[in-house]
């Protein structure tokens, strides 16, 4: 298949491109490199630098490349920033989807796999989360992703554009070759912050609250290896190619780790002390978020194999050691 990967210079998008190419597909990347990185662009892919909201640019890419399907990662993705600047999220994410769907419709591209999020569910006490639960996003980020899902649903009904929406839980790890990995500016995610502390780039990691109703008082999340996550995208492409109906799937490993447990695993993997201090809670953090991934396993035949936390943190650690300044190095 020839696949357009929007956001292919980002953390998850660059891993999707690597896997598509490894499996013999062709990849065309669109990225405006505002949060993505030029060195993350795979040399064996076709790359167009530009913004999704630029309809003439997108039209040109579709006309030239004649792709079979789209995997859509390009989006703003910081929960806190979205609360402060919701219009950035509705503009970049929702309007970006509008232009993308219009262009797909015009060029008769009928398959899209979409990078969605567990933030569509909102704060909930349900463990594990299944796809049939109510959605009630707590942030403009989660809301924008839910709106994008709904846009695809209506475009399926009207124009026959089939979609698979994949709701991610916490993604970590990196390609074992150590050449691509996670590099966000600013970094807000737990695993890279722990590993930057292991490298001595931060004095300590702040644990955001230890008074949650969990065994050790810190928040529990469901961490999944980025390559297991990407495997599900390839299965979703196959599923749509075989005539599968539009649908939504959770992607997680269905096992929970607390913040303290994550720091302990990282101490073991890195052999470093990793100083940690307990600080206040971060607004909007639910105590426990764990996915049920039964549906993805059953319908897509997904079988995550990198579920050992030592491997997830170990692969991320290889990247952080290789590129101590991320893509700047
Ligand atoms: N976290 C933390 N300190 C940090 C960053 C994150 O204690 O410096 C906690 C955060 O409160 C959450 C978990 O680690 O419980 C995972 O956070 P992350 O931002 O990586 O992902 P999220 O669950 O927010 O999508």
UniProtKB/TrEMBL annotation:
Domain NAD-dependent epimerase/dehydratase: 3-252
EC id: 5.1.3.2
Organism of provenance: Terribacillus halophilus
Annotated InterPro entries: Epimerase_deHydtase (IPR001509), NAD(P)-bd_dom_sf (IPR036291), UDP_G4E (IPR005886)
Enzyme class, broadest EC rank: isomerase
GO molecular function: UDP-glucose 4-epimerase activity
Organism superkingdom: Bacteria
Annotated signal peptide: none
Pathway(s) the chain acts in: Carbohydrate metabolism; galactose metabolism
Subunit details: Homodimer.
Catalytic reactions of this protein: UDP-alpha-D-glucose = UDP-alpha-D-galactose
Taxonomic lineage of the native organism: Bacteria, Bacillati, Bacillota, Bacilli, Bacillales
Family from the record: Belongs to the NAD(P)-dependent epimerase/dehydratase family.
Cofactor(s) required for function per UniProt: NAD(+)
GO biological process: galactose catabolic process via UDP-galactose, Leloir pathway
Protein name as it appears in the record: UDP-glucose 4-epimerase
Keywords: Carbohydrate metabolism, Galactose metabolism, Isomerase, NAD
